[in-house]
Amino acid sequence: AAAMESGDILQAALNILVRDGVFLFAGVNLQTTQEKCAKVIKFMEDKKLVIFMTQMQYIQHSVFKLIGIDEKPKDVSAEEAKILATNSSVKVTYNYQKAYTSFMFRLYDDSKNYAEKYLDCIDSTWANLWLQHAFQAFHMGLISFWLARKSREQRWYERGKRSKLALKKWAESSQWTFENKWYLLEAEESYCNNNFEVAKLFYEKAISSAKEHKFVHEEALAYELAAYFYLELGDAEKAMEYFLLAHEKYHEWVSCR
Questions:
Q1: Cα–Cα distance between 126 and 176 in angstroms, integer?
Q2: DSSP, residue by residue, 11-41
Q3: Of 4, 81, 85, 254, most Cβ neighbours within 10 A?
Q4: From the CA atom positions of the chain, what is the Rg in Å?
């Protein structure tokens, strides 16, 4: 507001992008997040801030996929295509959003492809301590441990470990926001190491922490990943129980306000 009042449109736009860009991963209802994205995109378009507009469009596309809206993105202009090809921050946003949605829909090849592209350009971006990067480290850790189990490639396991340690540090500074994420990465790492009893403990801790701290979307995710874990162990009854709980929580994320 202060930036707008002073006439600093660029700073105002950056503030809006930082504030509203985390709605998706803060657990805000997806319908509300969709509406927020549309308003921000319109603002950026009116102010001719194409880079910021493009970044928010990629977030909006993820929201559409998660809600289940069969809405095709508008045609990409030559300017937007050039920005994606040349702007490191935009490339990070694009590849991260693609990797995230591919992971959420368990698309192995796409998850691996976009995760590799994301990691190729992440080191060249600025503002690596922004809050968004903590969420990116969380999801990249989950993707990495999944890829490690599927591919048996050590590089993905090491990448997952780095993400886990990063989230542990974030959790030390903000238990409320990051504790459940750290626990879920601990569970996934233990799963990779065939340390099943420890994995069970951390899945339950991740679920309880997400519930306590009101992150319904991450409670759903913890239930879902735990369900895949129990399915792999041959406990179909427990897996089905957790898949149903995950479905219930995902529905709550989409539909409640």
A1: 26
A2: HHHHHHHHHHTTTTTTT--HHHHHHHHHHHH
A3: 254
A4: 18
Compute how many other C-beta atoms are within 10 angstroms of the C-beta atom of residue 147.
22
Q: What sign does the dihedral 62-147-251-212 (CA atoms) show? A: negative
211 backbone φψ class: left, alpha, beta (φ>0; ψ -120 to 50): alpha
Q: What is the full per-residue pLDDT of the chain (257 aa) written as tens digits? A: 544 555 567 887 888 887 888 888 888 999 999 999 999 999 999 999 999 999 999 999 999 999 998 665 566 678 888 888 898 889 999 999 999 999 999 999 999 999 999 999 886 554 444 567 889 999 999 999 999 999 999 999 999 999 999 999 999 999 999 999 999 999 999 999 999 999 999 999 999 999 999 999 999 999 999 999 999 999 999 999 999 999 999 999 998 55
* CA proximity to 126, closest of 197, 186, 51: 51
pTM above 0.90, yes or no: yes
Place of tokens 């995902």: 250
Q: Which token pair is 79? A: 């300017």
Distance CA 39, CA 43 (A): 6
- Sign of the Cα torsion 167, 207, 62, 29 reads negative
DSSP characters for 43-60?
HHHHTT-HHHHHHHHHHH
Q: Calculate the dihedral angle through the C-alpha atoms of 162, 165, 167, 171, rounding to the nearest 10 degrees.
A: -170
Q: Which residue matches tokens 């295509």?
A: 81
**Per this entry, what is the length of the chain?**
257
* Burial of residue 7, with CB atoms counted within 10 A of its CB: 0-12 exposed, 13-18 middle, 19 or more buried: exposed
Question: Could you report how far apart the first and last alpha carbons of the chain are, in Å?
Answer: 25
